[in-house]
Specification:
The chain is built from four helices and no strands. Helix content is about 75%, strand content about 0%. It has about 120 residues and is mainly alpha-helical.
């Protein structure tokens, strides 16, 4: 799960940076505000890469997805991109857990005597 979720978060890191560039063109927003908000969101993406397997990591990831969609009120294209990344986040969590379960199953089978495929040398 960690690899898939981290890949999604790194993609979001770049999208947030580009959205910050677009938001800078809004005359109602100061550059300081745009880069403070964008910088915090980008930093959270990086931090969540390490926290995704810890308790609450996935929940924090969902909070970031909601914030990404809500950023569409400032940069309208982020409604679409936020929804795409929310779908990618769901897929990363869902299929990442399935992969982790399959790896655990295969490791358990490989550790048992009935599951080993190489005969013991005497």
């Amino acid at each position: 799960m960690r690899t898939l979720c981290s890949s999604t978060l790194i993609g979001e890191f770049f999208v947030i940076g580009f959205a910050g560039l677009v938001a800078m063109k809004d005359p109602d927003l100061s550059m300081t505000t745009v880069w403070t908000v964008s910088g915090i969101a980008m930093f959270l993406c990086l931090v969540l890469c390490g926290l995704v397997t810890r308790p609450g990591g996935v929940v924090l990831g969902w909070a970031l997805q909601i914030a990404l969609i809500a950023s569409g009120f400032v940069v309208p294209s982020m409604f679409f991109l936020g929804a795409v990344f929310a779908a990618l986040w769901w897929a990363s969590v869902h299929y990442g857990r399935k992969v982790d379960e399959a790896k655990a199953r295969f490791a358990a089978q490989a550790g048992s005597p009935a599951g080993s495929s190489t005969p013991d040398a005497a």
